[in-house]
Amino acid sequence: MPELPEVEVTRLSFADRIRGARVTGVRVGKPLRWPLGADVDDMIGQRVGEVSRRGKYLWLALERGGLLMHLGMSGSLSFAAHAAEPGPHDHFDLVTARGTLRLTDPRRFGAVVWSRAADAPPAATLLAGLGVEPFDERFDGTHLHAALRRRRVSVKSALLGGEIVVGAGNIYACEALFEAGIDPRTRSDRISRPRADRLAVAIRQTLARAVELGGSTLRNFRDAHGAAGAFQLDAKVYGRAGQPCLRCATPIRRIVQNARATFFCPSCQKR
DNA sequence: AAGTGGACCTGCTAGC
DNA sequence: TGCTAGCAGGTCCACT
Questions:
Q1: What stretches of A47-140 show up as alpha helix (H) in DSSP?
Q2: pLDDT category of residue A233 using cuts at 50, 70 and 90
Q3: Amino acid A1: pLDDT
Q4: Does strand C come within 7 Å of the CB of A162?
Q5: Which chain C positions have some atom within 7 A of a protein CB?
Q6: Average of pLDDT values for A177-200?
Q7: Which of A97, A90, A84, A257 is nearest to A177 (CA)?
Q8: In 3-state terms, what secondary structure has residue A87?
Q9: Closest by alpha carbon to A79, among A2, A9, A167?
């Protein structure tokens, strides 16, 4: 589910409310992708600091370390003053004096990992190798073009990999390529400089618009207040196989690249 | 080294 | 109506 916009929308929906709250309890449910890696008692009594985002990860700072969280494919976080009894998919609760931060994740590809610092292992190891942030000023056509030139995979795979630029997952990679008029099958190293310029702009604009719309709710994404996103209603190609392109009426095609579905307009998007 | 495909886990939907 | 195959927003790892 959660690509950069969903993670950012989630962060914005609880960061201010949890900041300064003291941890009074921790509850762990079924195993997630990695073990928590800490004695839960050690967290009790610590104050929550800033919540920041790197790619699709959230870093929840505590006084003597922090929690690196990932929502996987089906995760969402809720923050409520009075948490309900945990359900079968509620796998982590951080109980504070101000409310409970809860990770709900049916598929359990998500993670909550304790780390002494964001730039120390294991957090640093998980964050190592991530590409530039799309809203960072260092991300532009020059950077994107240079990075794409070094790869021979399809441009769609290059974006999904997250080693060049983080944040665009399957939905937003498809949407950004549509906005830039680029066929997702085009080899990364064949993207011209002008097209890289357009793609960089498209990635940034697509992700920014998705954040404004509260992300995409395909099935179960909710922000920490429980609100659904609306970007899925705005998608031009994702999930629209067989339906007419909103720009030229050509039927949208669905293909499979690296075992992931790709949606594109065969007329608007060129090799 | 870079690229590809499988693995992780559960729930929902389309089709028979 | 009920079963089943196929599919889903991510990313790590083994293998070529």
A1: 123-127
A2: confident
A3: 58
A4: yes
A5: 7-12
A6: 98
A7: A257
A8: coil
A9: A9
